[in-house]
Design goal:
Elements: E1 2-3, H1 29-32, E2 50-51, E3 80-83, E4 90-93, H2 102-115, E5 117-120, H3 130-138, E6 159-163, H4 168-176, E7 194-203, E8 211-215, H5 216-221, H6 225-232, E9 235-239, H7 241-249, E10 260-264, E11 266-268, E12 275-277, E13 284-287, H8 292-308, E14 313-316, E15 323-327, E16 331-335, E17 349-357, E18 362-363
Parallel strand pairs: 4-5
Antiparallel strand pairs: 1-2, 3-4, 5-15, 6-17, 7-15, 7-17, 8-14, 8-16, 9-10, 9-13, 11-12, 11-18
Bound molecules: 2-oxoglutaric acid (AKG) and fe (ii) ion.
Keywords: Dioxygenase, Iron, Metal-binding, Oxidoreductase
GO cellular component, one term: cytoplasm
GO molecular function: 2-oxoglutarate-dependent dioxygenase activity; metal ion binding
């Protein structure tokens, strides 16, 4: 929970040369207040709140409570269900998330584990306010408080993704990178990382600004037994230190101390039982038992496999008032910042993210000795 303990710094300085993470944009707060937005209450705020480290907690995945796999409480006959790709990604129309009973929310969790990414266009939950949105997500797990980046005053579990159409930051970002895509699994450094994640579109460009997802279990299945046998027992350190260090160095807001957590590289999904690659382009510092160049070799190969395998990916196009819910255990994702080009007219994009923290990642070999390779 929030506490009133030390405030390290305030919002980012104007001379900040480049954002550490394209998903955590540098924002000129003074200018922001003048930006026209449909949802001013959701403009990012940088309130000086301090959070203590996440403590272990009991977690039962809501999908495990579902007995009737046809999901009658989620999908009445009037619901229109269409798949975006054969193996992942589904659009559900004529269902309002705000009206779901607890049994309907359990069934939603099951649908998300089955389809990995589910989009619900035209949701009245988008306009129901932050309390209703937070309370909806509480069903799926514990809230997360982001250590850096813009949030909402009095609602620190919100992570706000907002671009006002200004290209300057992207131009700076692309001075050092060749693409705006940054593949990641959300908050993988926490001891109990997110299971379910909600993204809610407040405002977006007519064309562009899609979000792309890759299935980490399907990608795992493509690997040969010789490779999966090697990967199955590996442990990896995920760290928020670089992100937080960068924020501190540049005078940005910091709300938590850095966390380093050892996770299995391959985790077993608690609902589907599938093995998922648990990997991140942003937060991994080492694979235990491997040398630096070997770690880089393994991570480069696996990330390349994930991001180039379009046959186990889905790209979600945002329609107005869409809520996307995805399984952060069986997917890796990236925003696509392609809508700021002059030729197409710069556009604003405004999304909120709410996270439900889930189980401690389940290793393939339960009886492994902790930190055997340290
Ligand atoms: O903006 C998006 O589409 C995704 C943002 C995201 O991945 C994040 O904030 O963690
Ligand atoms: Fe993300």
């Amino acid at each position: 929970m929030p506490s009133s303990a030390p405030v390290r710094s305030k919002h980012p300085k104007k001379e900040e040369p480049i954002s550490y993470d394209i998903n955590i944009p540098y924002v000129d707060v003074d200018k922001q207040s003048k930006v026209s937005t449909k949802y001013p209450q959701y403009l990012p705020s940088w309130d000086p709140i301090w959070f203590d480290p996440l403590q272990p907690f009991e977690y039962e995945d809501p999908a495990l409570r579902v007995r009737n796999k046809s999901k009658p409480n989620l999908l009445p006959p009037s619901a229109k269900v269409s798949h975006i790709q054969p193996s992942l990604g589904t659009i559900v129309e004529n269902v309002q998330l705000s009206s779901l009973s607890p049994a309907g929310r359990d069934e939603l969790a099951l649908l998300i584990t089955e389809r990995k990414v589910v989009a619900f266009p035209d949701q009245d939950l988008i306009d129901a306010g932050p309390d209703a949105q937070e309370s909806f997500m509480r069903h799926f797990g514990k809230p997360n408080y982001q250590p850096v980046s813009g949030s909402m005053t009095d609602h620190p579990a919100f992570h706000i993704i907002h671009r006002d159409g200004n290209r300057d930051e992207i131009t700076r970002f692309l001075q050092q990178r060749t693409t705006t895509t940054l593949w990641h699994q959300d908050v993988s450094y926490e001891i109990q990382p997110p299971g379910y994640v909600m993204l809610g579109l407040l405002q977006g460009p007519e064309v562009g600004g899609d979000t792309v997802f890759a299935a980490t279990d399907l990608a795992y299945k493509r690997l040969s037994p010789a490779v999966t046998t090697f990967l199955d027992g590996l442990k990896v350190t995920h760290s928020s230190a670089k992100m937080i260090g960068h924020a501190r160095l540049t005078g940005g807001l910091v709300r938590k101390d850095p966390v380093d957590t050892v996770h299995p590289l391959i985790r077993v999904h608690p609902v589907t039982g599938e093995k998922c690659m648990f990997l991140n382009g942003e937060f991994i510092t080492r694979i235990h038992g491997l040398k630096d160049s070997e770690t880089k070799w393994v991570l480069d190969f696996l990330m390349n496999h994930l991001v180039t395998g379009h046959d186990f990916q889905v790209r979600v196009r945002w329609q107005p008032r869409t809520i996307v819910m995805f399984d952060n255990r069986s997917t890796i994702h990236s925003a696509i910042v392609d809508y700021l080009d002059d030729d197409y007219g710069a556009k604003a994009r405004h999304i909120f993210r709410l996270i439900a923290l889930g189980e401690k990642p389940i290793p393939v070999y339960e009886d492994e000795v902790e930190d055997e390779f340290e």
